[in-house]
Amino acid sequence: MEATPASADELIVLGKITSVHGVRGDVKVYSFTDPIDNLLEYRRWTLRHGDELRQVELVRGRLQGKVLVAKLKGIDDRDEARALADYEICVPLAQLPDLEEGEYYWRQLEGLRVIDQAGRLLGRIDHLLETGANDVLVVKPCSGSLDARERLLPYTEQCVLQVDLAAGEMRVDWDADF
């Protein structure tokens, strides 16, 4: 493995190595992509653990239940593979596919100010949650927000009226029942 030239700011985490698989150096991977085997489309991974960055090449991978099993070039035994447990799997942001108009990566939404139809600041999007029905925006209070409440808003067409990345805000049709 070699150090990667990409800086940590240019990377996005797409998965995590969780443990070893077998005795030949394969690793089990939890993927954050949807579908989960989309992670296998990226042949070069940057592994990150704390401040340490390492570049690896994916030789092959397969879906096994709800995890992936991957073979990395140069990792040929169980001990080498075990040393990679808990490493995040990152790729350069520039390698992510372009989205259709009106579609966003979650990372693009995080940090946006959330403003209701009356022009009141509800807070900022801290993160999103995936649920069975729809994704959920976790909106935390910030300086100037309406109150100190954390809100969970559905990321649906009915709730989200407009996303303006340039202005750093999202307009929502907010109802106190959300």
Beta strands, count? 12
What is the top-level CATH class of the largest domain?
A: Mainly Beta
Report helical residue fraction: under 10%
Encode the helix/strand succession as letters.
EEEEEHEHEEEEEE
Indicate the CATH architecture of the largest domain.
Answer: Beta Barrel
Annotated CATH topology of the largest domain: Elongation Factor Tu (Ef-tu), domain 3
Largest sheet properties:
6 strands, antiparallel, barrel
Structural class: mainly beta
User: What name goes with the CATH superfamily of the largest domain?
Assistant: RimM
Total tally of structural domains: 2
Beta-strand content: 35-45%
Count of discrete alpha- or pi-helical segments spanning 4 or more residues: 2
Could you name the ranges where pLDDT drops below 50 across 5 or more consecutive residues? 1-5
Straight-line distance between termini: 48 Å
Radius of gyration: 19 Å
As laid out across the biggest beta sheet, the strand order is: 1-2-5-4-3-6
Query: What's the average pLDDT?
Result: 91
Using the alpha-carbon principal axes, give the shape. Answer: elongated
Main location: cytoplasm
Subunit structure: Binds ribosomal protein uS19.
Domain Ribosome maturation factor RimM PRC barrel: 106-175
Protein name: Ribosome maturation factor RimM
Structure summarized in a few sentences:
This protein is mainly beta and 178 residues long.
List keywords for this structure.
single chain, 178 residues, mainly beta, Elongation Factor Tu (Ef-tu), domain 3, SH3 type barrels, 2 domains, 6-stranded antiparallel beta barrel, 5% helix, elongated, disordered N terminus
